[in-house]
C-alpha cells in the first residue's frame, strides 16, 4: 500500500490479482474452486477470462467483488489490488465503497438479477444516490439519461417500468446502465450474453465496446464463448480447474496457443475463417473433481500429450515471451516433443 | 384492476352460494325434526314456522326458500330464542369476534414479519435460535393450553401485585382484549415467522440482492429496499387463510376467556341444535372469509407490480 | 528448476485411473436418507414418533389397566403421592353428639378419608349454623368454600362429612346464621389433615390383598399404583393416555393418509386429463377450500349424529377427508403439470414409453417426495384439529378418551390438580412437535433443489 493513503496510486496497475485461492465447504467436503489465480488489468483494456463451466472464473471475479457468500465460501490466500490498494475481503479504499463506484458488474441472467418489485429507473438511480449523494429526483433523471446511453428507446417511459415488462436484452442494457452509472474504472461482465439470443448478443457486446470507448474503462469479460473473446478481448486468460493455464494477448493466445487445453478449445470451436477451418473435435472426458484436486496438471487426464511427470507434479509458468505464459510441462527443456510442432500449427504468422 | 376486482367478486358470490348449499344439505341431514326438540311450542308458532321454511314441502322447495331468504340477507329467526332474528344475533356478537380477530391478525402479521426478518438477519446465531425455539413451541402447544396458561399467569400476576391490571376474563375495554388477542394470534405468528424467515433467506441469496451488493448499496438499505418488500410477498399471500384460521380459532379463546363473541355463540347454538342460528352463522362466516381472501388478494396486487400489471 | 529424470517425460500410455469421480453416485432416496440421518432434530423426532407408536400399540400390553375403571380411593391423584392406606373397621353410622371435650369447632373422632366427624359449641348470637369446607384457608375475604350442611336451630351442634373425601388438608368452617337464616360474620375454622384409610372388604374387592388372613385393623397396605396419577373420576391416567393415543393417533395419522390419498388421485386425474375437465375439477376444489373448516367439522359432526355408545371417531375422520383433500389435489396437480412439461418425459415418450410406464417410472417417483412431506405436515394439524374439537366438546364423545377430551376435562381442575391437564397437553405438544420437525427434515432431505447446491 502506498504511504499516501488518500490517493489511488496512478502508477500501480489498475487491478492486480495475485495467487487467489478460494474454497467452499459443501456436504461432500471442501471444494478448491480457485487454486492460485494471477492476472493484471490496465486502463481501457479488455481482459477475457475463458474456460468451461466450473473452472472458477466466476468465483474469481465474485471474490474480488466480495460477493462470495461466507460461509460456505472462504478466501484462503491471495490479494487483489486496485491501483495499489488491497480490496480483497474489504471492498473499500479509505472508507469508500469501491463496488458500484470503482468497479461495476453485470451478471449472466438479467431476468433474475434485477429486483422484481422496484422500477428499472429506481434501480439504476440507486448507486448515484448511494455513492454520489444525488437526490432521488436527480438520480432518476440521470437514470433516464443512462438508459438513453444504453440505447433503450423511450427511456423516460421505460424507467418507470418493472423488470418483468422488459425483454432479456433490454434488461441486460439496463444492467449495463446501472453498472456504469457512477463511471467506474472497471466493468466486470460475468457471462453477459450467455442467457441472451444470438442476435441480441452482438448488440450487447457492441454497447459495451461503445461505452468503453466513451469512458475509457477496463472490462473484465468472463465467458466460455471463444467467438466473444475474439471479438472483444485485448488480453486473454484461459482457466482450467481453478488455475490460469495460459495468459497472453488475444493474438498470442489465438494464433500462438501454448497450452494443449487452449488448442483443444480452439479445435472444438466452429469458425468461418477459411485459414482456420478444420473438423470440429471435442475434448474428451470431463474436468477433474475439485473435491480432490489432482496432484499434477489438472488437464493431464484429458491431454493427448500427457507425460508421466504431468500426473505427479504441477507445471510452473513458462514464459514464451514478455507476458505470454503457459503452464505446461511440454515447455520443459527435457520434454521430448517440441511444443512448436503441435501448438503453433495453426499459426498464420 | 377494476375488472379483476369485479371478476373476483363474482367468483366470491358463487363460492358463497356453494357454502350456503353445503350448509343447507348438511343441516338437512341432521337427525330429528327441528321443531320437535323437546321444546314447548304452540301449534300456531309451529304452523307459522312450517309455513315460513316450507318444512312440510319437499326438500327442493325448502332449498329454494332458503336461497330466496338468503339472497335478501334474511337468515331467519332463532328456534331457541323466539322472536330473535339471527341477523340481530350476528350483529350483536360478530363485532366482538371481529375486533378480537383483527387485533390477533395485527399481532400475528407484525410479529411474524418482525421476528422472521430478525431470525434471518441473525441466522444461526443466538437470536435466531431463541426465536425459532419459541416458534416451535408456539406451533406445537395447543391453543387451549396457551389460553389456560396465560389465564393462570394473569391470575397469579394480579394476585402478586394486589390489583387487576389485565382482567382475566370478560369483555369491554381494550385491556380485556390484549391477552386473548395475543393468545389467538400466537400460533399464526409462529407460522408467519417461519414463513418470513425462509422467504427472507431465499431473498438474501437471490441474484438481485447480489446485484445490489455489487452496486455497493449499504446493508441496511439493501435490507429495507430490496429484501423486506420481496420477502413479505409470500407472507401476504397466506394472510387470507391466516385470517380464516384466526377467526375460527377464536372459539377456544372465546370459551376460555368468557368473551361474548360469535364463535362461543355458535358452539352454544350447536349444543342446542338451533338450526337457523347454525346455518346463518356458518354462511355468514363463510362469506366473511371469502371476501377477506379477496381483499387480501387485491392488496397483494398493490404490492407486487407483476400482479398489478397483469390484471 | 529441479532436475527430473528422463522417464518423467515418457508419455502416459493409457489414461486409465486418471479420471476418478470422488463423489459416490446416489439414488434420490439414498441421498435423502443420508441427509435425514445428518439432521439430528429430524432423527430424534423420528425416534419420538416410533416411541409414540410403540406407546400406543405395545403400551396397553405392558400396562394392563382398564382405562375405564374408577379408583374411588384415588381421585385426582398427582403422580408420586403416597399410596399407603390404613385398614379401618367397616363404616358404622354415627348419631352421637358425645365427643372429645373442648371448645369451639373440633373433631369428635380422629378424622380419616372415610369420615370426618366434628362438633362445636353454639356461636354467640347464633340462631343456627352452616358448615362449609374449603381447600384453602378462609382468609380475609371470608371464602368458606362449599356449603355442606345447614341447621336452623342451636340443637344440632355436630356434623359428619363423607362427601368426596381425599387424603390431604381441608379447612372446615362453621358460620353462625341470624334469625332469617342469613350468614353473619361469626365463624370458627378447623384445619383437618386426612389420612387415607380403607376397609378390609374394600381391599379384598379391589384386589389390593389376596386374603384377609394376617391383616389386622390398623395395618397399612398399598393401593393400586398409578404412575401418572388419576383423573377426576379416579381413572388411571397412563392407561387413559394410551387409550387416548389410539384415538388421537388414529385420527391424526388415518385422516391425513386418506385425504392425501384422495387428493393425489383427484389431483393427478385433473392434471392428466387437462383442459375443461381439469378446470371444472379444480374449480370444485376451490369451492371446498372456501368452506370454513372448523365450522363444517362441527356441522358434519351433528349431521352424522352420534348414537349412544358411539365414540364419534369415524364421523370426524370422514369430515376431515371430505374437507381437507383439496390442498393435496392442487399440489399434486401442479406437480403433474410441471413434470409433464419436463424434457425427460418427452424423451421417454420418444423412446416409446406408454402412459402407464410414464406414471410408474416418472410421475410417481417425482411426486412421492412432495406427497410424503404433505402427509407429515398434515398429521400434526389433524391431531390439533381433533384436540381442538374435543376440547370445545365437539369431538369424540365421552367416555372415549382422546388427548383433546382429556385436556378438556383437565382444564377444569387446572388450579388444584394440574397434572390432569399437563400430561395430555404434553403428549399433544410432543407429538405435534415431533411430526413438525420430522416434516422439516423430510422436506429438506427430499428437496431436489438443494441437492446440487455448493
Features:
heterotrimer, A: 349 residues, alpha/beta, eight-stranded mixed beta sheet, four-stranded antiparallel beta sheet, 12 helices, 30% helix, 24% strand, disordered N terminus, B: 311 residues, mainly alpha, MetI-like fold
Short recap of the structure:
Chain A is an alpha/beta fold and 349 residues long. Chain A is 30% helix and 24% strand.
Sheet-strand content of chain B, in percent, reads under 5%
Strand order of the largest sheet of chain C: 5-4-7-8
Structural class based on helices, strands and sheet pairing of chain C: alpha+beta
Largest interface: B-C, 40 and 39 residues
**Gyration radius of chain B, in Å:** 24 Å
Q: Which stretches of chain C are poorly predicted, pLDDT < 50 over at least 5 residues?
A: 449-454
Q: Share of helix among residues of chain B?
A: over 70%
Structural class estimated from helices and strands of chain B: mainly alpha
Number of helices of chain C: 12
Using the CA coordinates, give the radius of gyration of chain C: 34 Å
Enumerate how many helices of chain B there are, as a single number. Answer: 13
Overall CATH architecture of the domain at 86-273 in chain B: Orthogonal Bundle
Terminal Cα span of chain C: 37 Å
Overall pLDDT of chain C:
80
Specify the overall morphology of chain C: elongated
Organism (chain B): OM182 bacterium
Protein name (chain B): ABC transporter permease
Transmembrane segments (chain B): 12-30, 98-122, 129-149, 169-192, 231-257, 277-303
GO biological process, one term (chain B): transmembrane transport
Question: Overview of this structure, please?
Answer:
The complex is a heterotrimer of chains A (349), B (311) and C (454). Chain A contains 12 helices and 14 strands. Chain A has 349 residues and is α/β, with parallel strands linked by helices. Chain A has an 8-stranded mixed beta sheet with strand order 8-9-10-3-11-12-14-13, sandwiched between helices. A 4-stranded antiparallel beta sheet of chain A has the order 2-1-4-5, with helices on one face. In chain A, strands 6-7 form a two-stranded antiparallel sheet. In chain A, β13 and β14 form a beta hairpin. In chain A, α3 crosses α4 and α3 packs parallel to α6. Chain A is globular. Chain B has a domain of 188 residues: MetI-like fold. The relative contact order of chain B is 0.14. Helices cover 78% and strands 0% of the residues of chain B. In chain C, the strands form 3 sheets. Chain C has a 4-stranded antiparallel beta sheet, with no helix packed on it. In chain C, α2 packs across α5, α6 runs antiparallel to α8 and α8 packs antiparallel against α10. In chain C, β7 and β8 form a beta hairpin. The C terminus of chain C is likely disordered. Chains in contact: A-B, A-C, B-C. Chain B: Pfam families: BPD_transp_1, BPD_transp_1_N. Chain B: Keywords: Cell membrane, Membrane, Transmembrane, Transmembrane helix, Transport. Chain B: One of its GO terms (biological process) is transmembrane transport. Chain B: Belongs to the binding-protein-dependent transport system permease family.
Amino acid at each position: 500500500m502506498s504511504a499516501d493513503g488518500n490517493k489511488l496510486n496512478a502508477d500501480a496497475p489498475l487491478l492486480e490479482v495475485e495467487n487467489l485461492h478460494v474454497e467452499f465447504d459443501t456436504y461432500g467436503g471442501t471444494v478448491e474452486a480457485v487454486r492460485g489465480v494471477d492476472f493484471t488489468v490496465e486502463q481501457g483494456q479488455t481482459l477475457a477470462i475463458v474456460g468451461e463451466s466450473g473452472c472458477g472464473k466466476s468465483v474469481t471475479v465474485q471474490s474480488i467483488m466480495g460477493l462470495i457468500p461466507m460461509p460456505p465460501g472462504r478466501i484462503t490466500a491471495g490479494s487483489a489490488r486496485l491501483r495499489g490498494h488491497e480490496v480483497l475481503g474489504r471492498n473499500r479504499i479509505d472508507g469508500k465503497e469501491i463496488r458500484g463506484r470503482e468497479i461495476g458488474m453485470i451478471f449472466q441472467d438479467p431476468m433474475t438479477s434485477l429486483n422484481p418489485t422496484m422500477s428499472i429507473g429506481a434501480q439504476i438511480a440507486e448507486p448515484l444516490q448511494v455513492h454520489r449523494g444525488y437526490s432521488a429526483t436527480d438520480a432518476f433523471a440521470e437514470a433516464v439519461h443512462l438508459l438513453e446511453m444504453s440505447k433503450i428507446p423511450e427511456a423516460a417511459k421505460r424507467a418507470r417500468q418493472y423488470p418483468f415488462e422488459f425483454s432479456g436484452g433490454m434488461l441486460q442494457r439496463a444492467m449495463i446502465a446501472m453498472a456504469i452509472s457512477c463511471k467506474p474504472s472497471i466493468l466486470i461482465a460475468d457471462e453477459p450474453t450467455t442467457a441472451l439470443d444470438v442476435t441480441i448478443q452482438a448488440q450487447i457486446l457492441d454497447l459495451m465496446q461503445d461505452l468503453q470507448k466513451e469512458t475509457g474503462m477496463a472490462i473484465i469479460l468472463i465467458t466460455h464463448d471463444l467467438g466473444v473473446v475474439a471479438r472483444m478481448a485485448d488480453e486473454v486468460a484461459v482457466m482450467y480447474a481453478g488455475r490460469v493455464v495460459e495468459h497472453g494477448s488475444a493474438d498470442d493466445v489465438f494464433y500462438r496457443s501454448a497450452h494443449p487445453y487452449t488448442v483443444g478449445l480452439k479445435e472444438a470451436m466452429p469458425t468461418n475463417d477459411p485459414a482456420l477451418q478444420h473438423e470440429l473435435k471435442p475434448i474428451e472426458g470431463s474436468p477433474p473433481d475439485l473435491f480432490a484436486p489432482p496432484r499434477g496438471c489438472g488437464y493431464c487426464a484429458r491431454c493427448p500429450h500427457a507425460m508421466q511427470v504431468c500426473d505427479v507434479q504441477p507445471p510452473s509458468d513458462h514464459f514464451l515471451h514478455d507476458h505470454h505464459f503457459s503452464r505446461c510441462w511440454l515447455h520443459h527443456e527435457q520434454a521430448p516433443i517440441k511444443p512448436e510442432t503441435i501448438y503453433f500449427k495453426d499459426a498464420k504468422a | 384492476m377494476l375488472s379483476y376486482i369485479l371478476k373476483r367478486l363474482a367468483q366470491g358470490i358463487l363460492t358463497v352460494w356453494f357454502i350456503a348449499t353445503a350448509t343447507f344439505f348438511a343441516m338437512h341431514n341432521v337427525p330429528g325434526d327441528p321443531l320437535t326438540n323437546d321444546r314447548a311450542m304452540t301449534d300456531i308458532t309451529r304452523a307459522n314456522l312450517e309455513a315460513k321454511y316450507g318444512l312440510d314441502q319437499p326438500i327442493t322447495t325448502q332449498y329454494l326458500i332458503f336461497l330466496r331468504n338468503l339472497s335478501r340477507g334474511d337468515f331467519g329467526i332463532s328456534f331457541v330464542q323466539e322472536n330473535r332474528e339471527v341477523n340481530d344475533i350476528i350483529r350483536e356478537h360478530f363485532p366482538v369476534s371481529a375486533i378480537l380477530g383483527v387485533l390477533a391478525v395485527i399481532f400475528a402479521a407484525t410479529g411474524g414479519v418482525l421476528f422472521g426478518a430478525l431470525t434471518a438477519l441473525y441466522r444461526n446465531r443466538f437470536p435466531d435460535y431463541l426465536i425459532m425455539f419459541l416458534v416451535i413451541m408456539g406451533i406445537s402447544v395447543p391453543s387451549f393450553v396457551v389460553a389456560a396458561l396465560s389465564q393462570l399467569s394473569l391470575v397469579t400476576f394480579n394476585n402478586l401485585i394486589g390489583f387487576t391490571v389485565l382482567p382475566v376474563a370478560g369483555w369491554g375495554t381494550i385491556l380485556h382484549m390484549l391477552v386473548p388477542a395475543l393468545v389467538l394470534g400466537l400460533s399464526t405468528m409462529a407460522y408467519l415467522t417461519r414463513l418470513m424467515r425462509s422467504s427472507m433467506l431465499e431473498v438474501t441469496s437471490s441474484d438481485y440482492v447480489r446485484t445490489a451488493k455489487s452496486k455497493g448499496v449499504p446493508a441496511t438499505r439493501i435490507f429495507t429496499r430490496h429484501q423486506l418488500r420481496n420477502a413479505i410477498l409470500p407472507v401476504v399471500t397466506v394472510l387470507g387463510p391466516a385470517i380464516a384460521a384466526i377467526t375460527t380459532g377464536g372459539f377456544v379463546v372465546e370459551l376460555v376467556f368468557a368473551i361474548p363473541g360469535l364463535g362461543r355463540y355458535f358452539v352454544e347454538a350447536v349444543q342446542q341444535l338451533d338450526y337457523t342460528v347454525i346455518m346463518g352463522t356458518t354462511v355468514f362466516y363463510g362469506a366473511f372469509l371469502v371476501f377477506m381472501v379477496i381483499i387480501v388478494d387485491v392488496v397483494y396486487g398493490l404490492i407486487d407490480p407483476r400482479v398489478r400489471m397483469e390484471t | 528448476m529441479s532436475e527430473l529424470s528422463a522417464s518423467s517425460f515418457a508419455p502416459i500410455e493409457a489414461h486409465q485411473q486418471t479420471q476418478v469421480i470422488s463423489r459416490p453416485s446416489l439414488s434420490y432416496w439414498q441421498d435423502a436418507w443420508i441427509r435425514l440421518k445428518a439432521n439430528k432434530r429430524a432423527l430424534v423426532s423420528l425416534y419420538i414418533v416410533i416411541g409414540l407408536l410403540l406407546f400406543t400399540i405395545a403400551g396397553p400390553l405392558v400396562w394392563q389397566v382398564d382405562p375405564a375403571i374408577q379408583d374411588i380411593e384415588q381421585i385426582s391423584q398427582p403422580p408420586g403421592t403416597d399410596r399407603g392406606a390404613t385398614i379401618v373397621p367397616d363404616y358404622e353410622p354415627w348419631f352421637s353428639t358425645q365427643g372429645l371435650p373442648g371448645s369451639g369447632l373440633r373433631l369428635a373422632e380422629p378424622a380419616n378419608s372415610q369420615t370426618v366427624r366434628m362438633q362445636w359449641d353454639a356461636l354467640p348470637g347464633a340462631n343456627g349454623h352452616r358448615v362449609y369446607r374449603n381447600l384453602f384457608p378462609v382468609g380475609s375475604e371470608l371464602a368458606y368454600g362449599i356449603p355442606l350442611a345447614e341447621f336452623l336451630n342451636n340443637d344440632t351442634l355436630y356434623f359428619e362429612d363423607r362427601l368426596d373425601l381425599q387424603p390431604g388438608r381441608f379447612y372446615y368452617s362453621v358460620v353462625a346464621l341470624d334469625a332469617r337464616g342469613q350468614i353473619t360474620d361469626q365463624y370458627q375454622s378447623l384445619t383437618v389433615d386426612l389420612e387415607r384409610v380403607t376397609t378390609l372388604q374394600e381391599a379384598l374387592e379391589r384386589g389390593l390383598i389376596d386374603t384377609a388372613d394376617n391383616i389386622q385393623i390398623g395395618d397399612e397396605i398399598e393401593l393400586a399404583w398409578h404412575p401418572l396419577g388419576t383423573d377426576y373420576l379416579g381413572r388411571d391416567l397412563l392407561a387413559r393416555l394410551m387409550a387416548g393415543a389410539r384415538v388421537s393417533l388414529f385420527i391424526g395419522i388415518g385422516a391425513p393418509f386418506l385425504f392425501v390419498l384422495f387428493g393425489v388421485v383427484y389431483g393427478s386425474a385433473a392434471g392428466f386429463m387437462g383442459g375443461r375437465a381439469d378446470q371444472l375439477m379444480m374449480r370444485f376444489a376451490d369451492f371446498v377450500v372456501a368452506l370454513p373448516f372448523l365450522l363444517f367439522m362441527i356441522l358434519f359432526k351433528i349431521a352424522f349424529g352420534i348414537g349412544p355408545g358411539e365414540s364419534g371417531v369415524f364421523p370426524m375422520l370422514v369430515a376431515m377427508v371430505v374437507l381437507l383433500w383439496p390442498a393435496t389435489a392442487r399440489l399434486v396437480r401442479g406437480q403433474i403439470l410441471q413434470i409433464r412439461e419436463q424434457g425427460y418425459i418427452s424423451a421417454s415418450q420418444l423412446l416409446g414409453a406408454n402412459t402407464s410406464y410414464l406414471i410408474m417410472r416418472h410421475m410417481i417417483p417425482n411426486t412421492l417426495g412432495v406427497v410424503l412431506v404433505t402427509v407429515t405436515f398434515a398429521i400434526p394439524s389433524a391431531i390439533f384439529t381433533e384436540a381442538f374439537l374435543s376440547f370445545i366438546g365437539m369431538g369424540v364423545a365421552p367416555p372415549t378418551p382422546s388427548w383433546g377430551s382429556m385436556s378438556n376435562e383437565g382444564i377444569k381442575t387446572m388450579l388444584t390438580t394440574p397434572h390432569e391437564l399437563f400430561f395430555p397437553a404434553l403428549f399433544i405438544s410432543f407429538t405435534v412437535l415431533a411430526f413438525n420437525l420430522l416434516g422439516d427434515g423430510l422436506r429438506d432431505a427430499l428437496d431436489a433443489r438443494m441437492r446440487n447446491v455448493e
